[in-house]
Amino acid sequence: METQLDPMKDDLPLMANTSYMLVKHYVLDLDVDFKSKVIEGVIVLFFETGSLYRKTSSTGKGSCQSQFGETCKMRASELCHTPVTNVSACSSKTEYDDFAVCGKGEEDTSDKNGNHSNEEQASGISSSKDCCDIENHGNKDFLLVLDCCDLSVLKVEEVDVAAVSGIEKFTRSAELTDVSKELENLRNQIVHELVTLPADRWKEQLYYFTRCSQAPGCGELLFTTGTWSLEIRKSGIQTPTDFPHAIRIWYKTKPEGRSVTWTTDQSGRPCVYTMGSPINNRALFPCQEPPIALSTWQASVRTAAGFVVLMSGENSAEPVQLREGILSWYYYVTMPMPASTFTIAVGCWQEVKQQSFTAAIQTNIEFSLPSSQADFRWHEEICGHVEYPCRFQNPAARSQAVIPYRVFAPWCLMEHCEECLLQLIPQCLSAAYTTLGTHPFSRLDVLIVPSNFSSLGMASPHIIFLSQSVLPGGSHLCGTRLCHEIAHAWFGLAIGARDWTEEWISEGFATFLEDIFWARAQQQLSHDEVRGQQELKALLRWRRLRDEVQNSEEELQVLRPKKESTGELSESGASVVKHGLKAEKIFMQVHYLKGYFLLRSLARTIGEASYLASLRKFVHRFHGQLVLSQDFLCMLLEDIPEQKKSELTVESIFQNWLDTSGIPKPLLEEGEPWKECQLVQQVSGEVTKWIQTNQRIRKSGKKKRKQDEVIFQKV
């Protein structure tokens, strides 16, 4: 029996039917209007037929395959297998209050023409029986389902990519007949050839993506908007294979949309940015949200002169003036990633630059070489991801300890950034490179976001958001947070969780690695000083974890809440993010803290040097891919000598650390080893002293108040 879920209160639905059609590239063409607080424009999506309907004769080149079926070899445990993506998963039931058919001149004839009625739509996430009942009822039109929320969709049409001059090179035959069926097949063939171009032709690919996105339309498509989705169909088309593989959507955001926030910066100037919403980017553009929908993108964004557009992009965009008072900014990405990682920030940001050119050069020289590259022996291996221009295969990128970086901030915070942040970035980047090797991304922008930002930091491809709160804390607070966000370039971005409920894969690793990075960034510290810092932080994290466990729901304390169902999807590819919409979950750190203590425990068991070598191996094997917990654990346990394994198994780690609430049993049995650390003892003594001093002052203050009250009564 299906579990009844209310996505408005609990789980976040991922509606896109990625098993039928998989988006490979987005082209966005947007205008940002601060007066109306609306982003409006066009998005063109390029698709491949999904794995469920891909022809068996296809080579699968460039397709998003089952990522890890071959990687995590089974030995004795079945826990190391990777679930296939077309098994039935527990589905959710969601209500749609504001369903409207918005196709051109269309009435709601859903019961007659095969579209879903409102009654059918109430089932929400389900198997293909609800979303695309092709096998059993061949007379129904295929429905393409995209994740969409808080958007006004104005028009949807098929793009005539065959009309682009020079596109003949992407067709197997230049001969065309007047039969419309053959023309439709030709268009889809062109898109297939375009999205599967070899990585060394990425510039040509971007050029033709741009040309195709500007091609004329060749027929409007019917569409329906719901609370969480946009459903698109073409009359008479009953399979994903025959459905248009290039579609154009006209839309605009709503001022109250939850993917971006409109506000003012610390200098009082208007700005808008993606702040890491629980619903991700579906209120910014229609997309496929499931992590398996790895895609590339390019975007042109127009805004008034005086504003700077920062975005997830491999290039450092320079504005182009279109007309007086209007600038256009263009970014692109060639590494396929989930649409949820797309980030944009538009504001009157000022670039913070190094005052001394000599100092900048010296900084880069000082941190240009890692301490050791002796065990980076995996560079010569073939990458396991889908084909793209990978930095791990680029000799110049592999030797780049400090990637190009820029810092942006509101005008009033520029001095703070120059004094602290600007000096720390090369140190932290170099420390990360020393630890993990090749930087997955070619450049980095760091932006101090407005004061309404609810976190200390957020990492996205090529850009990091930092809170202004890290600036006054001196180099330690700013440096550790910077290290945490830099760590996400490897864990969270280059390597992502295949199931978003396994947040610990991103946050646990980043929390553990921030200590390693920061220790190496502070080159002047002795071994004992580094250990003191790390043990003190372990104590503080232990106390936060203990307090959180005592004051939160048990079900929110589990790092793998779907347990053995983790990673499973419905037949259509739809799924849910368990507890994804729970308000209190936003403020919880259990996935940071329990993940950190698990990795710390493994490092102590294996030895830090061996453990970090295993992390580097994991990065080289799995970058550009999506993983589950067992992918990491299987690989790690394979590398541990038998004498050090003790009772470590994937099953025991699941049972003790990932699948249960509360404080993990091994952590309780370990006691509190940080108590023996001299720095911890020193800080604890200092804290105790000031608590006692404060109590004495408060007691003396009470006596004085009583005396004052007696005197006042006498008067």
UniProtKB/TrEMBL annotation:
Residue stretches of biased makeup (Basic and acidic residues): 106-119
MF terms in GO: metalloaminopeptidase activity; zinc ion binding
InterPro entries documented for this protein: Aminopeptidase_N-like_N_sf, AOPep, Peptidase_M1_dom, Peptidase_M4/M1_CTD_sf
Alphabetically ordered keywords of this record: Aminopeptidase, Hydrolase, Protease
Keyword Ribosomal protein recorded: no
GO cellular component entries: nucleolus
Keyword Hydrolase: yes
Domain Peptidase M1 membrane alanine aminopeptidase: residue ranges: 439-657
Pfam family, one: Peptidase_M1
Domain of life from the UniProt record: Eukaryota
Region (Disordered): 106-127
Name of this chain's protein: Aminopeptidase O
Organism annotation: Aptenodytes forsteri
